[in-house]
Each structure stands twice: as C-alpha cells, then as structure tokens.
Design goal:
Helix content is 45%, strand content 12%. The chain is built from 21 helices and 16 strands. Strands 3-2-1-4-5-6-7-8 form an 8-stranded mixed β-sheet, with helices on both faces. It has an 8-stranded mixed β-sheet with strand order 11-10-9-12-13-14-15-16, with helices on both faces. The chain is elongated. The chain starts with 13 loop residues before the first strand and ends in a 19-residue tail after the last helix. The relative contact order is 0.08.
Length: 593
C-alpha cells in the first residue's frame, strides 16, 4: 500500500506519536480532536492506511462544532513511515507494544532524529521507565505516561517522572495529558503493576474459557459486564487494548515471574500470529467497521422449541436470595408464593420484601402503585404443597448439596408434571439436583445475582438431560423479568465465578508481600481499568466466608492451582473477619474506600 502524504506542520509545533496501535491511534485522535497538530509515524503501511481511513470517516461523521461548515478537529494529521518527520515535533510520544527490545529500538530511533532537549514520552505500563530512559542515552529527556487501556476523552492517565527526568520533560508530559483532555491520576508504580497483572491474568482466563467452548464470546462478555458491573466484557477489553499488546505484556510477565497464569492462552497466540489484533485491525474477538466502531452481534436465531406460559411462580426458601427473587417475580406481575420452613419465617420474609419495596419507592425505582400491586401478588406458606399449582418453582435454600437434593426430591413429588424446577446454585451440581427430583428433564439452573432486585444477569445452566421446552420456558420467563440470560453447561462456577475467583484469589496472594496496601491496589484497578471496585473491596462485599466456600467448591471440582483457596482467606474467616456483613474485613471501615 502507498503511504498517505499530508503536508507537515511547521517545525516544533506538533506532537508526534510513534506507533499506531491501540494506544497510539487513541492518542492521535484525542490530540487531533482537541485541535493540535499531530505527526503519526509507523513503519506498517497497513496501519497508516487504516488510521487515515478512520480519521477521515470520523471527520465525516463528526458534527460541526462551530457552525462554520469547516472540518472539526483542527489541523490535519501527518501520517508517515518516515521517522525524519519527527524533526517537526515539539514532543514525541512512543506508543509501541511493551516489548523491551521494540521499545528500546524505537526510542533510540527517536533520539537519533530529534535534537537534544526534545521531550520524549514512553507509554509503557509494565516496563521500567528509568531503564528505557537510560537506554536512549538521553535520560533527562524521557518521561513516562502510564495508560492502562487505550484512552478516551477524560480517561485516566498517570504522568511518570524518573529520578533523571528534566523539569522540561516533566512539564511536557503534564501538558500532554491536559492537551489530550485526559484526567491525571496518581496510582504509583507498585499498585499499577499489581493491578495490571491481576487484570491481564483475568483477561487471559476469559480467552481460555472461550477456547474450551464452554460459552460464546457474547455470553462471556455479557456475563462479566452485568454480573460484575465491568465497563466492558473481557473479550471486548482485549479487542480495545490490542491482542498483540496484551500478548506482549503477558509474555513479559510470564518470563519474569514463571507464573503460568500469564502464559498467553493458545487462542490468543493463534490470533496474534494471524494478524487479528482486535479493534485496530477491524477484527479480533468481535468485528468492527471502518471507523473502529463495534458491529452488532448477530441476533439469536428463532427458538425452535416453544416456551410454555408461566402463570404462577413458587420460591422455596426465606433467605436474602429467596426474598429478592420473590420481589422480582411479584414486581414483574406474577402471583408468587414463598415457602419457608415455618410460618414465622414466611411472615418475616414477606415483611422484608415489603421493606425492600418501600425503599424502592423512596429511591424512585418503582411507584407506590407498583409496590401495592406486587405485595398483593405475594403470599407466604410453610408447606411445600402450596407449590403444587405453580408453573415454575425456584429453589433458593442454603448452598449445601445435601439440603438441595432433599428439597428437589420433595419438589419432584409435590409439583405437577411439566412444572419447571430451577435451582439458584452458583457452584453446585445442577445435575445432582435434577437426579434427586426424579424428573431430570424438568430441572435447570437459574443463578440470580445478589441483590436480585438490582442485578440484571441470570446464568441459565443446563444439563444434558434437560428438556428443550423447559430450557425455552426458563429463558422466556427470565426475559419477562427484565433480566438478561447467558447460557452455559452445568459446571461449577458457570461463567462469572469461574473467571472472578481466580482473580480474587490472586489479589489475596498479594497480601503475602509486605509492601501491598489493599486500598492502593483497589484504587489502581478502579482508576486504571474502570472496574466499579477493586478486588479487596469486592471480597468484603461478597463476604469473605462466602468467597472461601466458593473457592473450596471450585477447587474440589477443578483441582487446578488458580482455584486453590488462599491461606490468608482461611485465616481471615477463622479470625471472624467476614467483610461488610459484620463490619470487619479487608477494607470495611477503611476511610479511603
């Protein structure tokens, strides 16, 4: 392909960006849209052509900011493969992947072209800025810009100064952050490195899960977005960060640590080898148009098995999950009976649902009329015979297989033929519950997330023996609740917990070091990657005892290192530190939270 040619700006007036991968392209667009002259350099002519096309398409789609009919975004971008164009730059940003040899080579090319005193900014997130600066032979000119993911407008960016960085170079990186419209943050090298390692290992596991064929790319991303509140699913994040960039970072971590959690997933390596780098090349785990916008995923095909009508719902249990599910079904308009072990528990459960609905009215989540309607649809009982006329029954008792099997044996006797029987387990065998019922074709897993009235995800787990009509009915029913389902085979942890708990376990392992502050690590994950909370705050929220129980079940099922319960978690629970539920945990009471 031929190199795009555009007239260069006057010397010393432009910001140069070297490397048009995910980070480089994002910086070019931010600076261009803020009205700055930009010189973009890459030896890959395909990358130059691709970015040129995207800038042109974005310009054509952008509104006229000033009503003048002129092209928004200020001066044109110079796109070239010729490094001598860097002489026109007042500052240079190096944005190639985190491979030490590649970065060192590019930085030395920059210093060979640009006169001494030209500020040089490296965007490394996992390598030592000091060592890269020394390798240039001009360490005073070099500063760092820590970008955890490709930046968007207002996104976080951390200026990094070494002990050798000059005042002029330090000022240049600060001005770069302001010019690009980014938000300066102070995370720190150690928390940033820990957060990056935790998240990269998490993303790597998502690729392994996809490669196993356990769940689709859409269901993996949807599960983690809705189940954990992430800003994007893990495969979407990988596409945006650049598969080659992530592969290089993982490889570096693997070589330095020997930890197999960082060994790039075979599927990731295959994709990188074939040039499928994600959004920047138009295709990775998802597809993208010429502007880099994600193309809509194909819609699910028509259901080949009709769903039965659900008119009445039963909920078995009286704990937090049972109460939350009963609130959801009644609010959705279903007559619902909640069956508890005794009349007192049933009454207390209904009272708790009423209190929750009152809070919902206060917060504007529902109207007073909707509350009254939902309460009118709710009934309590202490005899499972009350479930006999239900079309769908949801078991939400203790997460103990023996207890659940006993309940399903009774459900199999009480409920009418064709009643859909669902278990809310998150880590136990759906098949074992199905077998105990004596009617395995009627049993599915419906893993609601806590708090059920708020969380919009349900993991729909299916066994090999489930009737297709039962599966269709369960999925249609969840849709009427306003929930999104992801389908997955019956396996401990399903999608969310199987990816979440190795990440949480790795965070707990950091506590073996003396230099780790949970608050700093949480803040690095939150600010750097946009997660709603860091791993330690999340452990407190889930409950340390609940987390330990889930880790034990996952390890019993898989027997692999990433699921080994963390010794420190065992000790915390033994000491009575359970998290938010009892006010004592890893972050509970921490004013910095």
């Amino acid at each position: 392909m031929t190199e795009p040619q555009i007239t260069a700006p006057p010397p010393g007036t432009a910001t140069a960006v070297v490397g048009l991968g995910s980070i480089g392209e994002a910086l070019v667009r931010l600076l261009r849209d803020a009205g700055h002259a930009v010189v973009a350099v890459d030896t890959d002519l395909d990358a130059l052509t691709r970015v040129a096309g995207r800038l042109k398409a974005a310009t054509a789609e952008a509104p006229d900011r000033h009503g003048t009919g002129s092209r928004p975004g200020g001066p044109e971008v110079v796109l070239t493969a010729d490094p001598t164009a860097l002489r026109a730059a007042g500052r240079v940003v190096e944005a190639v992947p985190d491979d030490p040899a590649a970065k060192t080579g590019v930085l030395r090319t920059i210093t060979s072209v640009c006169p001494p005193g030209t500020p040089i900014v490296t965007t490394t997130s996992t390598l030592s800025v000091t060592r890269l600066a020394i390798a240039t032979g001009r360490p005073a000119d070099v500063a760092g810009l820590r970008l955890f993911t490709p930046p968007g407008p207002g996104g976080p960016a951390e200026p990094v100064r070494t002990a050798l960085t000059s005042a002029e170079a330090a000022a240049a990186v600060d001005e770069l952050v302001a010019s690009a419209g980014l938000t300066p943050v102070a995370v720190g090298a150690r928390p940033a490195a820990d957060a990056t390692a935790l998240v990269l290992a998490f993303l790597n596991r998502a690729v392994i899960l996809l490669d196993e064929g356990y769940a689709t790319r859409h269901d993996i991303d949807t599960a983690m977005r809705l189940g954990c509140g992430l800003p994007a699913g893990p495969l979407e994040m990988l596409d945006r960060m650049g598969l080659d960039t992530v592969h290089a970072r993982l490889t570096g971590l693997w070589r330095r640590t020997g930890d197999t959690a960082f060994e790039p997933a075979p599927l990731l390596s295959r994709m990188v080898a074939t040039g499928r780098f994600g959004r920047k090349t138009g295709g990775g785990f998802h597809a993208y148009d010429e502007t880099g916008s994600a193309l809509a995923a194909p819609a699910d095909g028509p259901q080949d098995t009709p769903a039965a009508t659900v008119r009445r719902v039963g909920v078995l249990g009286s704990g937090a999950m049972a109460r939350g599910i009963a609130e959801v079904t009644a609010t959705a308009g279903y007559p619902t009976v909640l069956v508890a072990r005794d009349a007192d528990r049933a009454g207390q459960a209904l009272e708790s649902v009423g209190d929750s609905l009152t809070r919902g009215v206060r917060r504007g989540r529902i109207t007073p009329r909707a509350k009254a309607t939902a309460l009118g649809l709710l009934a309590g009982a202490d005899d499972m015979a009350a479930l006999a006329d239900c079309d769908l029954v949801i078991e939400a008792v203790a997460e103990d297989l023996g207890v659940k099997r006993a309940q399903f044996a009774r459900l199999g006797e009480v409920c009418a033929p064709g009643t859909v029987l669902a278990t809310t387990t998150s880590s136990l065998s759906v098949a074992a519950c199905a077998e105990a019922s004596g009617r395995p074709g009627d049993v599915v897993g419906l893993h609601f997330f806590n708090p059920a009235p708020v969380m919009k995800l349900i993991e729909l787990a299916h066994t090999d023996t489930v009737d297709r009509g039962v599966l269709a009915t369960a999925r249609a029913f969840c849709a009427t609740l306003g929930r999104t389902t992801v389908r997955c085979p019956d396996r401990s942890g399903f999608v969310v917990n199987s990816l979440l708990f190795p990440y949480l376990g790795a965070a707990l392992a950091l506590l073996e070091r003396q230099d780790v502050d949970p608050a700093e690590t949480d803040e690095a994950v939150r600010q750097g990657f946009g997660f709603p909370m860091g791993p330690f705050a999340l452990l407190d929220t889930i409950g340390l005892d609940v987390s330990l129980a889930i880790q034990h079940r996952l390890h019993e099922r898989f027997r692999t290192p990433e699921y080994v319960p963390a010794p420190v978690l065992e000790e915390l629970v033994a000491a009575g530190l359970l998290g938010r539920k009892n006010g004592r945990g890893l972050r509970t009471g921490d004013a910095r939270r």
